Amino acid sequence: MASNRPLLIPSPRTPNTEDLPTLAVFSDLSKANLGMDSKNPIEKSSGIENSFNSSSRRSISSIQSRASGGNSIREVSFGDLGSKPVRYGSRGNDSDVFSMSHSIREVSCGDLGSKSVRYGSRGNDSDAFTMSVKEINDEDARLVYINDAGKTNERFEFSGNSIQTGKYSVITFLPKNLFEQFHRVAYIYFLVIAVLNQLPQLAVFGRGASVLPLALVLLVTAVKDAYEDWRRHRSDKIENNRLASVLVDDQFQQKKWKDIRVGEIIKANANETIPCDLVLLSTSDPTGVAYVQTINLDGESNLKTRYAKQETLLKFPEKEKISGLIKCDKPNRNIYGFQANMDIDGKRLSLGPSNILLRGCELKNTSWALGVAVYAGGETKVMLNNSGASSKRSRIETRMNSEIITLSFFLVALCTVVCVCAGVWLRRHRDELDIIPFYRRKDYSDGEVKNYNYYGWGLEIFFTFLMAVIVFQIMIPISLYISMELVRIGQSYFMIRDIQMYDEASNSRFQCRALNINEDLGQIKYVFSDKTGTLTENKMEFQCASIWGVDHSGGKAIPHNEQVGYSVQVEGKLLRPKVKVATDPELLQLLRSGKDTEEGEYVYDFFLALAACNTIVPLIIETSDPNEMLIDYQGESPDEQALVYAAAAYGFMLIERTSGHIVIDVQGDRHRFNVLGLHEFDSERKRMSVILGFPDKAVKVFVKGADTTMLSVIDTSLNKNLIRATEAHLYTYSSSGLRTLVIAMRELSASEFEQWHTSFEVATTALLGRATLLRKVACYVENNLSILGASGIEDKLQKGVPEAIESLRTAGIKVWVLTGDKQETAISIGYSSKLLTRMMTHIIINSNSKESCRKSLQDAIAMSKKLMIASGIIQNTGGSPTPRAGVNPVALIIDGTSLVYILDSEIEDELFQLAGQCSVVLCCRVAPLQKAGIVALVKNRTADMTLAIGDGANDVSMIQMADVGIGISGQEGRQAVMASDFAMGQFRFLVPLLFLHGHWNYQRMGYMILYNFYRNAVFVLVLFWYTLFTCFTLTTAITEWSSVLYSVIYTAVPTIVVGILDKDLSRRTLLKYPQLYGTGQRQECYNKRLFWLTMIDTLWQSIAVFFIPLLAYWGSDIDMSSIGDLWTLAVVVVVNLHLAMDVIRWNWIIHSSIWGSIIATWICVIIVDAIPSLFGYWAIFHITGTGLFWFCLLAIIIAALIPRFAVIFLYQYYSPCDVQIAREAEKYGDSSEFGNVETEMNPISDPSRR
Question: Residue 812: which CATH number?
């Protein structure tokens, strides 16, 4: 089947007949009797299409009724709270639930536009169709004249093949980059400050000094952006100058990629990259097959087959003129969809996704291929998809904005105090202004007496306010933004280099694709995970089969290491499958006995279907032994590969595939079958079929697909016992965690085949409604089938998944699994992964109407409340030291059909209420947009952080919706990785990522932000106190250069180094005690309380720094510059020692940064004071020559930091948090004491809801 896994149309649960006695609570059964009519492939196929949804439910419901006595609900009494499921909602025979017109359709990115996306809506909303379903009309079509680029581009100048991923040019870089940078409001604030300081009336600092901080930040960011863009331009230049063979004047010539135009014919040779999107005309293969590898497009290494039309196959443009017209859809992002018609030689041919080669693909196992360019440059599908991950903002940075607003109000308050006091002072001294220094209104220096620029009482107050804003500007820390960026880069470096997150199997390291949300990894409360390929390996292995009602899974399979393996002789060489499959000896013996018995004929047809009904390409691989070769089956779906390898192991080896026939070696006999038709898998039919012509002229159709759609097209009148047995085996396989497929077939009469062939030709050449017609034609032959059996394929759990999920739940993280697999399979995987436990109570919701869903949710909420109350009583009577109601685990299991009615409706609040009371939520048979809707359900109703992790294209919407998106580099391509914020190789790496790096990043970033606020506020308050003692004139004792360098050199480096390197706890401790992760969930490292405590500490330290020197030198003749140097040095020493007090793990880099910054400050102050042209010449040398200076410096340190030290000691001694307890245990290293840490930790509880 195709690489897209079945996503919709949930399967009715088929319990084992001995399984569940039930008690009816309510039912919602609606009956439908839809007949099947196959007489007319077009007019009647709608009846076929609808009717296949009813028969299976009749057969399934018959088993359900016998198993449950007619009741489909199971309710658990309060005395029985084990693993028994509580089932709400019944699945009746309502065909509307499963009808094609009401299924969820996936929306491609190119279709959404500005229209709202409904995650669970039903009906015939045309916006929900994919591009592949939309039909071409004349207005939406692109006309491409084959081998005539001039005429093609005559009316509309299509995009050239040159690409440009760079954002800037030499001319646009400066304005565009500055425009982007000034999207940060803080930058605009500092720009306004710098402009104000240029005005003569407001000039407090030197004009150059006021601009320097902002200019430095803008310059660093601009250099970084310029370097990144230069790399993009360099890559573009290399790409654009690559060479391709283009038909020019009836001969192929080398031409640069950037010069290729739409309409030109291009020749690609083996192992070359396709330069643009081409419609395939001919290939070196006589049947017109070309093999391509799309690893550059979607990361998938398996070969795909593309086909040239037979009408163009024998045309050679060097020898004869090729002309024609292609009418195709306009450029779009859908890499899996293409629809066009080609008019050539008077014929109209239909074109689809199998006839196009996309830019970036590599031609493999094909000597050459010719194609005509239909999309070029930025209009190619790969370039339209080159948008990267969505932009996200860190939660802690968002919360930081409220503190910055608070500081802004505080800054305004300080400026208001200064200007009001200045106004009062001016009013009180208005008669003395002529004689008071600095405020004389008369200038007597010249012979002529004139006025100073005194603007009057009102304007002087206004100017004082603006000058105060300039002086106190660093209250808003401009350096904080660039410090955060540098810290995130450093943190990302250590995450990437972490050996614990290196995947040896794929040779891939952790990828940090979004640098701005590192700290969000430490605050996750919900994890939404895909199952297949994320929790499991997505490496399928055939395990068992049900054939003719007989279960061949008895555990007698021959182990891999004891197998000889099936092999055939080809041209004197031994040919064997590359992958060995465990085989059942009884089944092998049955196959060797031939088709003489009815059972033998069923087994023969079953394995023939496995070998033939697929799109697998067999490739021959040479080995070190010249007499032996391996056959490697390449395909887009791991399921198909597993089935074909299984067929080969049982003697049905696919040897050759072309567009017209296949060759299968059956038990040593070579058979050639003509491929008369192929209906590929699609997300609505959920099955695929192949029509084979046999050597004896018989025509048979083989079909395989999901049981939800296959059982509905089986002819139930043939053998009801066989169908029941197969259904029971399907349920057993699913309950064991296996992926299941149903195999069926029927023989077509000559008239049926002729009728199908005629209808198929009409459908494939239709201009409108082609996709719908093709589905109807497929449904014409895919009905009244004879069931052959079912297969069970194992998708093994990844290494460490159970342990990882258990650790996540211990940390208080709720794990939700959202999968497209059927319910039984998902539940089985849930148990094996420890997501579900035997002590959980299961609430299962499978409903097929809105009212049924509403009642199910209401009953489930009432049930969960009763369970919580009962759980609390049990725990209290049991003498638990921490009795808490609601601790008893409850698991909610819900299917995609129920979510259709719940999401985007008023009852989704009830779903959220129920899910909030559950420890685990398992969603089965969900579509990609439903995954995003479930994430949005939680994200929009809580303040909790969400994380989504997946590996496939169907997980992209979920990954982009969550606060943090993680892509798994798996078997399903790189779509999830390309859309993610972080990428890694295994699910288990989530534990070190969150518990280690997430915890460290959050703790460091929270502390760094608070420290930056404190560091700048101390400096501003010292300036403020000085203003109060200088008649509010806003003159400063601290030099302008010290003000500028304070945030850049004096204190910036230690902050960044500690933010990157400090660790509050060791790796071993954080992994051993997952409860420590609750620090981030409870926001213990950054919150309002800590902010205000920091501001109180800041106020006290500023008082100590300012008033101790003021009092010590009161009445002395010390000059302003000298005491200003003392205040500068004191502030720098205090804030660096403050930082040193909080460092947990010292190393030489941290030592160098802290003590080096203090030394650098001394050096800078000395250099500034040694320049005669600057204000305060030689001041530092005057003041340091006295003992009082050193006494003041020591007194400031003691007075400022001792209170902080005392408060921290008392708090940690009497009310320690989890981290402090663990840190003490680490310090003393007593394992016996460390063992008791877990019982002392705070219980995990949900943060408050919005």
Answer: 3.40.50.1000
Q: How many whole angstroms from its chain centre is CA 76?
A: 38
DSSP state of 554: S
On whether 931 is known to bind a ligand per the annotation, the reply is yes
Strand 982-984 and strand 511-512: the pairing is antiparallel
CB of 505 within 8 A of CB of 799? no
For the chain, the C-alpha Rg in angstroms (whole number) is 37
Least confident of 710-724, 747-761, 958-972, 1101-1115: 958-972
Is 39 part of a structural domain of the chain? no
955 annotated as a binding-site residue: yes
Tell me, what CATH number does 769's domain have? 3.40.1110.10
Can you give the pLDDT at residue 876? 37
Q: Is 1055 annotated as a binding residue?
A: no
DSSP state at residue 970: B
530 carries an active-site annotation: yes
Provide the domain limits for residue 235.
163-243
**CB-based contact 968:951 (threshold 8 Å):** yes
Catalytic residue among 277, 329, 530, 795: 530
Q: Is 1103 part of a structural domain of the chain?
A: yes
The contacts of residue 883 (CB under 8 Å, 6+ apart) are 872, 875, 876
Residues 824 and 968 occupy one common structural domain? yes
Report which of residues 935 and 534 the model is more confident about: 935
Residue 261 assigned to a binding site: no
Q: Residue count of the chain, please give it.
A: 1250
The domain total for the chain is: 5
Same domain, 914 and 1023: no
CA torsion sign for 1145, 1151, 1152, 1157 is: positive
Q: Are 1019 and 979 in the same domain?
A: no
On whether residue 29 sits in a domain, the answer given is no
- CA distances to 383, 388, 817, 1016, 1152 from 165, rounded to whole Å, are 9, 12, 37, 40, 41
Q: In this structure, what token pair is assigned to residue 1070?
A: 């954080």
Hey, how many other C-beta atoms are within 10 angstroms of the C-beta on 626?
A: 8
pLDDT confidence of residue 528: 95
Calculate the CA 1154 to chain-centre distance.
Answer: 39
Model-wide pTM > 0.85: no
739 annotated as a binding-site residue? yes
What residue spans of 102-204 are helical by DSSP H? 109-112, 149-155, 173-181, 185-197
Q: Are 839 and 957 in the same domain?
A: yes
Flag whether 951 is marked binding.
yes
Q: Is 586 annotated as a binding residue?
A: no
311 and 339 together in one domain = yes
Please check whether residues 803 and 789 belong to one and the same domain: no
Q: Using CA atoms of 583, 584, 586, 587 in order, give the dihedral in degrees to the nearest 10.
A: -70
Specify whether 577 is located in the same domain as 723.
Answer: yes
Clarify whether residues 1014 and 1085 are in a common domain: yes
